User: Fold Signal recognition particle receptor FtsY from Winogradskyella alexanderae.
Amino acid sequence: MSLFKKIFSSEKKETLDKGLEKSKTSFFTKLNKAVAGKSKVDDDVLDNLEEVLVTSDVGVDTTLKVIERIEERVARDKYLGTSELNQILREEIASLLSETNVGEATEFSVPQDKRPFVIMVVGVNGVGKTTTIGKLAYQFKKQGLKVVLGAADTFRAAAIDQLQVWADRVEVPIVKQQMGSDPASVAFDTLQSAVNQDADVVIIDTAGRLHNKVNLMNELTKVKRVMQKVVGEAPHDVLLVLDGSTGQNAFEQAKQFTAATEVTSLAVTKLDGTAKGGVVIGISDQFKVPVKYIGVGEGIEDLQVFNKFEFVDSFFK
Assistant:
């Protein structure tokens, strides 16, 4: 199928295959039970498949779309064997996802005409936000870009310390203040420093609190407004980090954050340690916000640019 005719780096693909191993094993165990003793895709198989997709964290809405597409194929082709189900799932899910995430990135890069390119990172504590920032900084630096980090999560001292560890590891400058400082002030200082250093990319960490959406909204709005005094269009990207291992909870966080601020891209982390990788398919489909990055391992190289065809190929391999 033409959707899968892309050539991927074999090393990257191996990491992705390995990272999705638990999700894939869990999915196929359920799928094999669902079609046991059946040679034809009929109503029973479709009912069972619906349950398999929902329990694999693909999400109810996305599952119903997939089932509807397969029903259309059954009606059109008159006969579909269960042995073909895996290939049909690959094709229909890839086709569904190709309707969203238009113009997705293929590598770690930023637009040439927006320098410094400012990324504001949001997400609740514990989702892998700081680790994602560190790995992003590493990837951008590897591309020859000059990166500056801003520690605007001043709510927790640990967040500032953690970001400093990553800044030291990747050998990029960091702008920080004391715990309890005004996050907007840190963001302002970071952008001024980045402009003075002629930086290519600025990554700003922000506090991960959702208990009061109004406070979160107000704080992020203030951070944005202050950044724009230095760089007119900042932030160019508001990246929401979600923990893939939480399954449906990741959906809920995405809903909350997209309601609180304008999120422009998503990163889904910790896919290697969970059987809930199907959540990426659901999140890709449900939110009209592109999944830009996925975390498929603990290594510094294990943050990947998300490619839906590559992902679906690995998941249903």
